[in-house]
Amino acid sequence: MLTDIQISRAASLQRISAIAAKLGLAETAVEPYGHYKAKIDLRAAGLDGAEPKGRLILVTAINPTPAGEGKTTTSVGLADALNRIGHKAVLALREPSLGPCFGTKGGATGGGYAQVGPMEDINLHFTGDFHAITSAHNLLAAMIDNHIHWGNALDIDVRRVVWRRVLDINDRALRAIVQSVGGVGNGFPRESGFDITVASEVMAILCLARDLDDLEERLGRIVIGYTRQRQPVTASDLKAAGAMAVLLAQAIKPNLVQTLEGSPALLHGGPFANIAHGCNSVIATRAALALGDFVVTEAGFGADLGAEKFFDIKCRQAGLDPAAAVIVATVRALKMNGGVAKAELGQEDVEAVRRGSVNLIRHIENVRQFGVPVVVAINHFHSDSEAEIAVLREIAEAQGCEAHLCRHWAQGGAGAESLAQAVARIAASGEARFRPLYDDALPLIAKIETVAKRIYRAEGVSATPAVLSQLARWEEAGYGHLPVCMAKTQYSFSADPTLLGAPTGHILPVREVRLSAGAGFVVAICGEIMTMPGLPRVPAAEAIRLDDRGEIEGLF
User: What are the residue ranges of helices labelled H in 441-487?
Assistant: First the structure.
């Protein structure tokens, strides 16, 4: 069996100019980065502020397990299938982070014959967007320490600087550090730390900004810390926003690539859904909606995280109106939710599928709370039995959902045609009546409780007095209207990654809250979730190397 990278290398990609021509983009609007990737100049393309005309399809999934779900693979397969059956479909996905690529999860370009390419470029440095975001974020950090060193005219309380540094690599040693040691010339010593770049507020801002002007304005609103009188200090106060915007001027342009079948794909931005809002950029999504009849996008991890934030943060801020949602499920993952060990997943166990399907049912119910119709995609594995597939179909249909068996990993777009036909029909029906889960006017703690109770089915929320008083101060400062961005484990509806299936009655522990005033949300950090991941015992990096021909091995 060929690996993903072997399949990708064997594919004949089209020149990026041909992909741009499919979208009707003029040569002057396309800035090539080699033969197979490019930036799109939206102003030159006449897309700056263009009105969406296409229908937006969200691809989400059940909670991830080591058995695999294949959300990106399904997104690619669905877009290819929509194009195969005569529609003009555009993919709008996130860029991969180097952290998971060299850690546990691997790359994020799909798999099998449902991939975007060039796979190696996209999974590694691509067009440099993440490096630009890292640089802009750390420039602000340097300007904070420099301002304090040279007299601290803004009276920043060194104990209340909340802006950490970032790096796009998993490195647990950097989670908590003491900085500026070594003497007077090195600044004022204080405790700080690093987050992974995808958790940066700068990443979130790039993904939520409407244009370059909005980007700079949002950067200026970043709260970096507080004065001794507990008044917020912003990046604008430090005169940092202009230089940060300069570093991001190229990064804000969407990236154009293609699937292995030649479907246009806009890959732009890459926030994680367990610690950030988990969606590709608003700019790329809106450009895709102006260029295609259907736009297939995804939100990270399970629907309890990515889909909720897609609806409550991205769609709310950008005025997007999703027409349908696809929930990806696999027989293998449902068996794990039903209590089967990973080593035994190859054995038929219909009752385990039935037990584990409570996870799928919960996600169907949750997505419907947003007024969006749902289709279930059964991502096929060769070990799935007919009886297991039948019970998964039966359970989905009992919830009033169509369930379609998809073989896009092995067959490309041809393996997802029935899913594409259903999605196109449902999206065009006008059935969707999108609405966010909560109102802007709710207090911040009430928004957190709403997500906890209605999406996670928690009994309640536990928050320390310090967290509650911080939320109250932000409301007094005028931030109470913001939505909340929940940071918790992706493996469970609860904050405990070992509670699989569909747990109820648990308490959601909120240990910390962070204000992302520029991005426009408040982050609630729950349980033991980390904003800087660590590498596993055997990181993927150990198997990645260059062979004798200078080609990459071990990247998946």
Answer: 444-454, 465-476
